[in-house]
Amino acid sequence: MSLDMVRKWYPRARTSVDTVNRLLDTIDRVLGLKPHQLMHADSLCCDDVNAIQYPPRALEMLGPFHLGGLDGYPFAGITGMNAFAHHVPEDGAVIIFYAPHIGVTKQGALGEISRIGQGAPSACCGAAKGALEKLKRNEIIVGNISSLDFQMNTIEQIFLSQKQRILRADHPLFEATEVMYEAIDDRIEVLVKATHYPCKYLLLVGGIFINGDKEMGSYCQYKKFDCIDIESGERRSLLAEYDAI
């Protein structure tokens, strides 16, 4: 029932365990690589609720190295990307998983969840919801980024750049999360181009990470699963192989 509620918003969503198992199975079948040959980095929100339910074999991967700050934007930047790039097995691959997150309750409400130890639902992602409320009130000033709240201000600027698209949507928070995914994806691509990976493959896995109520667990819907051959530069999508398992 919980997955049914999630799929009202994200029709291709799967549980986190199923998602990771399919990911590792696809890598094994297509590239012949086992979990211990994979260096894992993620760009997810620093929200405490984002503890992914990994199946046991996923713990054989190296990492994860955390690139993300509020709502998953890769605030670690080029320094962070270069740092973990030097940790990868030479005969293996780098996996970069990135996603903004959003909550879905067991009743199907979007943008909030029931957390452990709390009686009332709370916002998820709180940063995205806060930025959206400021956008609605016309309180975001173009170019206003302070060192005191750099990450939140960056999200506000991302939303402001797509103001009409977000506010005209049937569900502005859903649309704002799509905007956030696109901004994260764009920045990951820029960082990747500026980084050398001393391994065989680079795997870029982007999507929406979905938090459920405390008894529901978490889910994910992939938007991208690209494999880049480091030597040749050839890129191909593995989404069809992932979905076929």
From TrEMBL:
Q: Kindly give the Pfam families that the UniProt entry links to this protein.
A: LCIB_C_CA
Q: Which residues form the Limiting CO2-inducible protein B/C beta carbonyic anhydrase domain?
A: 16-229
InterPro entries tied to this protein: LCIB/C_CA
What protein name is recorded for this chain? Answer: Limiting CO2-inducible protein B/C beta carbonyic anhydrase domain-containing protein
Give the originating organism.
Answer: Leadbetterella byssophila (strain DSM 17132 / JCM 16389 / KACC 11308 / NBRC 106382 / 4M15)
